[in-house]
């Protein structure tokens, strides 16, 4: 990796890693028992290792690991709080952001932040080892 690219990655990923806390990935959206996966490449599994296919809160709350077929964006964990409005001016800019690399990751908890348009996000709280953080452009 080139030194300039490494420096850029360190600046982008540092806030996510500096917290020492778990970070979150959004696995999808659930509304009235209907599952709308955000990432088709995420398979959520229970403690027994079986894929969780049901779209109810009780089943989704039992997620213990996730198998990522491609990188998943890391975000601040919002818990069950309603999501804040975003800055519409910043939405068009593409910048490097930290993501969790593909593979299996342990899930510490599941939250359901409410959406203003109805339904809830399915937010997986994951502990992110530094070697699994990659940079993607979004």
Tell me briefly what this model is.
This protein is of the alpha+beta class.
Question: How would you portray this structure in words?
Answer:
With 138 residues, the protein is an alpha+beta fold. Helices cover 15% and strands 36% of the residues. The chain contains two helices and nine strands. The chain has helices at residues 3-18, 57-61, and strands at residues 23-31, 34-37, 42-45, 65-68, 72-73, 96-100, 103-111, 120-126, 133-137. The strands form two sheets. It has a six-stranded antiparallel sheet. Strands 5-6-9 form a three-stranded antiparallel sheet. A hairpin with an 8-residue loop joins strand 7 and strand 8. It is globular and about 35 Å long.
- Give the biggest beta sheet: 6 strands, antiparallel
Q: How confident is the prediction overall: mean pLDDT?
A: 78
Q: Report the principal-axis shape.
A: globular
| CA(first)-CA(last) distance | 20 Å
Strand percentage = 35-45%
- What is the H-and-E element order? HEEEHEEEEEE
What class would the helix/strand composition place it in? alpha+beta
